[in-house]
Amino acid sequence: MAFNFEKMLAPIPERSLKADAIKATGARNTAEYISMGVADMSFKPPDAVLKELSREVKKGFLGYYGGIENYKDAVTKWMKHVHSWEPRSEWISTAHGLVAAIGTALRAYTNEGDGIIVFSPVYHSFRKIIRANNRKLIECPMLLHGGKYYLDLKKLETLMTGRERMIVFCSPHNPGGRIWKIEEQRELAFFCKKYGLYLIIDEIHNDLIYPNKKHVTFPLAASDVFEKFILMTSTTKTFNIAGGLMGNVIIPSEKIRRKFSNANSATGESPNRFGMIMGEKAMQEGQLWLKNLMKYLNENRIIFDEEINSIPFVKSMPLEATYLAWVDFSETSIEENVLMQKLTNDAKIIANPGSSFGLGGEKFVRFNLANSRSVIREATRRIKDLFKT
Ligand SMILES: Cc1ncc(COP(=O)(O)O)c(C=O)c1O
Hints:
Layout (H helix, E strand, L loop, with lengths): L16 H7 L10 E2 L11 H13 L8 H16 L8 E4 L2 H12 L5 E6 L3 H9 L3 E6 L1 E3 L2 E3 L2 H7 L4 E7 L11 H14 L2 E5 L15 H5 L6 E5 L13 E4 L3 H13 L6 H13 L1 H22 L6 E2 L7 E5 L7 H11 L2 E2 L1 E2 L10 E5 L4 H14 L3
Parallel strand pairs: 1-13, 3-4, 3-7, 7-8, 8-9
Antiparallel strand pairs: 2-10, 5-6, 9-10, 11-12, 12-15, 14-15
Helix pairs in contact: 2-10, 3-10, 4-5, 4-9, 11-13
The site of pyridoxal-5'-phosphate has 13 residues, from α4.
């Protein structure tokens, strides 16, 4: 089957975070803006997903969701075929999105005031949800070597005070698109074991892997090391259905799982009908779409990097996964707020300032590359224009 992503573009609707971000500029002509902030793709989800949703709407029954065993069956098959690790159906809980699931896990396993560790710069909602739950955020900055991030467990040792209870880990990493090697995941697992920490592994980007790269899911890499891990996966980034707000929380250990289930029940969690229907269908029929998507995104990534790296002192981090380019402007003389103003007001590009990802993110900018090739070219042209002397 041929996939032409140029023909699968969905215009930004009024009711979207992307539209809100453009409106927030105060501009009258919002059509001039290129949206490269919010991590939704510009492509329609697989046809099978749209058709399934339409069928459901046409039937007219929009009540509470049921039939979760079929959904769980799709999750176990997806994990087995795509990630070579097969969870048991009873290990899987669902949640209203992974950020909400992280909040639930914080309440399940830790108390107010406990230290929660993240490796920064990292997806900004980790920091927000940790603080919103009155836990103490501990940022362990990653090392940056040869344009690639590394975990700094030696540094983390020096930050440990005895009040830390959990690490929230992003794999593959957002931002920077780093795929963690098996040895790195094992070292992290041994660290957690040594200090008695719970480990949340957010693998929301685990399917968005570039050709010839390999992501290894945490349980396959290191579940023999310790049992206090909580794996989170989702179809939402993979198939561009984040509005369905759902996700999977996979916990092999019964003891650890019971705590999560209790905390999840305390939120009144009950699956979102539309999210579950879309997710199930996407896992059943979306694999070929995904393969072609990654080929398309790979071309976008190559073009973007080539253009951006031609600007003196500017470096785009080579992505192994995710469609979120991470560009280092730290060797230019421009301040971050000036750069962001220029990007928004002059280039008319909406992107995410690096400082919003925490320590080490300053003077980086994150750009969403899941757009048509012509938009990517136009965006790079506008960014290059900012630096013309
Ligand atoms: C690492 C990571 N986790 C979670 C999310 C959001 O998850 P959800 O929409 O399921 O809350 C994102 C969104 O970009 C993300 O990058």
